[in-house]
Amino acid sequence: MPSIRSTQSNHPARADRTVISGAPARAALRAGIATMAALLRPTLGPTAGRIAIAANLRTSAPEIVGAAGIIARRTVAIDGQDQNMGAMLLRQLVWSMHESVGDGGATAAVVAAHLSDAASRYVDTGGDATAVLRGINAAAVAALAALTPLARPIDRPAEIARVVSNALGDDDIALLVGEALDTVGGDGPLLVRDAPRGVTECEYAGGAIWDAGVLSVSLLRAPHVALDDPSILITDHELGVPEVIAILEACVSSGSTPLLIIAPGMSDQAMGLLVSNRDRGVIADVLAVQGPSPHGYEHRALEEIALIVGARLFSAARGDSLRTLQAGGFGHARQVWATSSTTGIVGGRGDVPRRRARLREVRHELATAETDDAREIIGKRIGRLASLTVTLRIGGRTESERDEYRERVHAAVAAGRAALSAGVVPGGGTALLAAARAIDPASLCGEEAVGARLLARALAEPFRTIVTNAGLPLPLPTQDGGGDAHAVTFDVLTRAWVNPWDAGIIDPLRIPQRVIELSAGFAATIVRTGALVHKAEPTVSLRP
User: Fold this and answer.
1) What distance in Å separates the CA atoms of residue 193 and residue 200, rounded to the nearest whole number?
2) 168 sits in which H/E element
3) Are 385 and 362 in contact (CB under 8 A)?
4) How many whole angstroms separate alpha carbon 411 and alpha carbon 415?
5) Nearest to 392, CA basis, from 188, 114, 150
6) What is the per-residue pLDDT for 164?
7) Residue 64: is its pLDDT beyond 90?
């Protein structure tokens, strides 16, 4: 391969650099891209293979990796510095996919490698680079427009699990991630940590905060008072002495002496009784606060606080009597706190599935709210129900297995969030095939049509790769989509055309969108590259 050595005599301290220009530079990039794509291609699809990456120490066993995003995080290089540049460019593209949507790295690598190879070869044989790239960009716009109508929303744990199972390769952990994301929502706090034991598990810490404080400042021994592991009583009754006596007796008999009472009001005599019993040590500490009281939503807001802490709501409208209160009527939390104007609950110990179900109901209320005031109130209710921190603790039989699972879970969480925010489309390469069919080269002129055809062909490559990775021959038997080409996809596990929604072969919409966006930009980079320059002793990058 022709190259020249270039030194700058007026800067003798600078290292020598090797320069390769023109078509040979693009050929070197193509060779490196092809090598990296060949490394990533086997990881695409449900029958994907795994890659062995040699350890830094020759005496150590190689690392076995099965996800393109994880491979992109490893420090890899191929022979030939010029070719290695192309490989690193594709590695960067895969890393961008991994960072933004958690999955789809192998898909992006296959499309970008095919498109950049075809486009740069065409240009190197005399094609008009500007026209070809205009055609690719116009086709990308048409392809992206075709994807949005295919998308469907998801919000159930099992649906989320179907999406993230591609990134995880483990249905049980996929369901854990699905339940966690269903709980916190697309933007809620979800932490991924190592498990102290070898078992992967999920921890929930719920909480809520609202703008209402103590019923009397006599309960505040300091501006901010916190109670650890309290019993929590929730009611819409105005409390008098008989009710407070019943509450104190039930609390003391249950052995849980710190006490939080949430009620709309309390008589002066009842408040004096409460403070007196606290000061005498009958109960270790006590707070009595107002509940959230949004106009028209008071009862539902109290019900939701009860769900958060696992308490029974004692409702005057239902005829509930506090005089028959037993220990099972209390809720519990890791901590509660109150000031003169605000109350907060941390680590509410209510039933998580019931809380998730109520959160879905309230989100539907928000969608049908007719006024700004109603939307603001319902939004606060959603905030309290969704104010939950979930920690996924990742285990494994070995440290390397745990590390890979942890990386896979991070990717799965990103994919799940993408699916919740924008919806899902048919998977297995079907969405990209639909996008390819939306491209109409005949609507473009000259070499712009060439660029459009090149993108359409590249978008079909992931489907072909999934099929060939499963050891199946092409072309496949003709499918019957009932007139709708998007209604079916090929399931390489059952070797049959299936409904992707029924079979759970779905991907976040953001994956094919990012594949098209990144691949079009990647092809432009390769086609427009006029020269390669590298240091004689290049710096090793530990991150893409």
Assistant:
1) 10
2) helix 157-168
3) yes
4) 6
5) 188
6) 86
7) no
Say how far apart CA 428 and CA 450 lie, in whole Å.
26
Local structure of 389: helix, strand or coil: strand
| Per-residue confidence (pLDDT) for residue 17, from 0 to 100 | 58
Q: Report angle CA 342, 348, 354 to the nearest 5 degrees.
A: 120
Is 90 exceeded by the pLDDT of residue 181? no
pLDDT tens across 212-269, in order?
Answer: 889 999 888 888 888 988 999 999 999 999 999 999 988 888 776 789 999 999 999 9
User: What is the C-alpha to C-alpha distance for residues 299 and 320, in angstroms, rounded to an integer?
Assistant: 14
Peptide bond into 475 cis (omega under 30): yes
d(CA 149, CA 203): 37
Q: Are 419 and 151 in contact (CB under 8 A)?
A: no
Rounded to whole angstroms, how far apart are CA atoms 254 and 361?
Answer: 33
CA distance linking residue 211 with residue 77, whole number of Å: 57
CA angle 293, 299, 204 (to 5 degrees): 90
The first and second tokens of residue 388, run together, are 């939950």
Cβ atoms of 534 and 82 closer than 8 Å: yes
Listed in order, strand segments (DSSP E) in 91-218 are 190-194, 201-210
Say if residues 132 and 448 touch (Cβ distance below 8 Å). Answer: yes
Buried b (16+ CB within 10 A) or exposed e, 263-297: bbebeeebbebbeebbeeeebebbbbbbbbebeeb
Do the bridges between strand 190-194 and strand 388-394 make them parallel or antiparallel, or are there none, so unpaired?
parallel
Predicted TM-score (pTM) of this structure: 0.67
DSSP 3-state percent helix, strand, coil across the chain (nearest 5): 50, 15, 30
- DSSP sequence for 26-43: HHHHHHHHHHHHHHHGGG
